[in-house]
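[Solved] Which block belongs to which protein?

Original post:
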Amino acid sequence: MTERQYHLHDGKKGAALTVRIIPRARKNEVAEILNDGTIKIRLVNAADDQNLNRNLQEFLAGVLQIPAGRIDVVAGLKGLDKLITVLDLDADALQERIIKKLS
């Protein structure tokens, strides 16, 4: 039996959050944190807007005070419920920054 070869690498470090988008809002804002920890965010975009994910990333970048390139939508690309990863920011800092922006 031959010895199996492994290639290990460092993973990216950061935090994840779940987001529920409320489209067609009057303004972009963090609305509330639901009981399950989901962040409810109002965006002015329509639900079928092709730029919804990009605008969400840019809005979150402003809220979290980080570059938009460190935010990635990893699930829910076409829906209103999304899983977001935020690189180089731990969960405690992420939560603190979100809470500061609650409407």
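(Second protein starts here: sequence line, then its structure tokens.)
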Amino acid sequence: MAGVGAAELTQLQQGMTDQQKIMFVSQYGSEKKDRTVALILSLLVGVLGVDRFYVGDIALGVLKLLTFGVCGILAVIDWFLIMGRADDFNRNKAREIAAAIKPS
């Protein structure tokens, strides 16, 4: 699964003025999560749930923190899932920002 593509971002920007597009790109750029950072966090400190906190999954982050990744099992599973979760976070954040900026 690839990250949020330029086509998706362009589609979200349809109907926006140039100033709104600049606001969208600026805000999205500052709030998006990097897939590689998520994977590195998962590999290094995944048993503490830091990777899940990074992508906004607070409940699962707390679970992993309190149980040491359920004895490492969830940490290993997240090595394969966390990049997709970062993509989901970015996609949802882009939609949220676009909805806030777009005219009604």
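Accepted answer:
You had them paired correctly. Confirming on the second one: The mean pLDDT is 92.
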